[in-house]
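Section 5.1 Outputs to date
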Amino acid sequence: MSKPADYKYRWLLNQLMRARLTREEITDRWYDYSGQTLTRETFKNWKDAVEKYFDTIIECDTKDGYRYYIEDEDKEDIKRNTINRWILKTMEVSDTVTKHKQLKDRILVEEVPSGNETLEDILDAMESNHVVSFEYTKYFNNPEEEPEFYELCPYCVKQFERRWYVIGFCLTRDQMRTFSIDKIQKLEKSEKTFKIPKDFDSEAYFKPFFGIITGIDDKRMGKINLEHIEIKVEKDRAKYFRSLPLHHTQQEKERTKEYTIFTYDLYPTNDFYQALLHEAEHVEVLAPANVRKKMKTKIRKMTERYKNKQIK
């Protein structure tokens, strides 16, 4: 049986999450999607794989033309799982685009940097709880861009701003570390194994942060504390914040005809400041004073770069 990440299983799950279908209808949809046929035996293998990897049961209603389906209760269980939700949404978009593949020159997407093969190797190591070793090139504080060697117990992976990251306990540095997968080279699965601490929860680990940075003792920014942050957003831009919250703790404190004040409870790492800077003049940090001061410092440094410099 293929790996659980196989797109064919994700495709079948997505179809049955959306409709009750006969095997013939599934076969026709697969041909429209891939240009390939789907035999009875292959369908059975896919069905078994979906049930195993997504912990569900695919029923067959003999009284309704032998239509295959997933019970509503099981659908809700699948949707409650974060990775399953992501898989389904990704497949829905893929399915929609495939139906309109004649528009391939008019549908533009963002590419994720290379690293898929490394990601697969890391996931394999995670499944068997094996330590991985690799060379890694830092972009900061490494002017020569020479790779460094690391050994890592990979606890989880996370996608952020078109890049994949692996997070775990670094045996080389004796601490939790995060690595951008597209910077990893010569990755190997070690014979060493590890156990994830019982109290480690990947979602909880990132919950009080924005983005991928989780260090609260930053070399460049100093000690970072959990803060209750208020930002003022211009009225038109506030609509964007309501439709796509900046962080799961986002609350709307005040709304006027001219602006809205949103609040957040998180550790303001550099990723958070970068997100605010992305909003440019449409956003103002109101509180606390130390976060406002840090934002002012960053804006001042940006301004200084444009002073007294002639464009050649």
